[in-house]
Amino acid sequence: MNLINRAKNILLTPKTEWVLVSGESATLSSLLTTYVLPLAVIPAVAAFLSTLFWTGRLFGFNYALFSAISTYVSAVIAFVVTSLLVDLLAPNFQSQKEIGGSSQLVAYSATAVWVASILGIVPGLGWLGSLAGFVYTVYLMYLGLTPVKKTPEDQRVVYLLIIFVVYVVLSMLLTWLIMGVVFAGILGVAATSLF
């Protein structure tokens, strides 16, 4: 299935789409190249535009570009690490340990947060887009646990909470780490240009 149809279907008819997903085979690398890398561009572009428009005068074009790059890189790393952790934790929740299914669950659930991030371009709506995206991502993941990972009903909530906490914390840490390195680099370049 192509990227646009999969993204649309996972957002609009998730129950039906998860059943289709459960019958497909995928690998972490195939999902990364055909789904995650293209969709992770959305929050990166939103970060670039919002940074450029709203703080660009203060930090400049390079900061906006680095903000976009850090957003993109952190989304990709968070996908890979979260997929691996979902798979690693699966037996603890009587779920199927299979990296392809774990990657499908993480990638397709994250569609909501990636698409909603476009609201970050509009002042005052970024936080709303993030909140709506995260809430819907949790819902999508909840719906996908049983068909994709074969998670028993009584294990879904706890497994979901652990996955989500890992994803959010990891995404935040990666973004802060990358932005810290980038910001330190910008300050270093600015300081050396004074001499």
Automatic annotation (TrEMBL):
Subcellular location: Membrane
GO annotation, cellular component aspect: membrane
Keywords, sorted A to Z: Membrane, Transmembrane, Transmembrane helix
Location, primary (coarse class): membrane
Domain Yip1: 9-171
Top-level taxon: Bacteria
TM annotation in the entry: 35-55, 61-85, 105-122, 128-145, 157-190
Matching InterPro entries: Yip1_dom
Membrane topology listed for this record: Multi-pass membrane protein
Protein's recorded name: Yip1 family protein
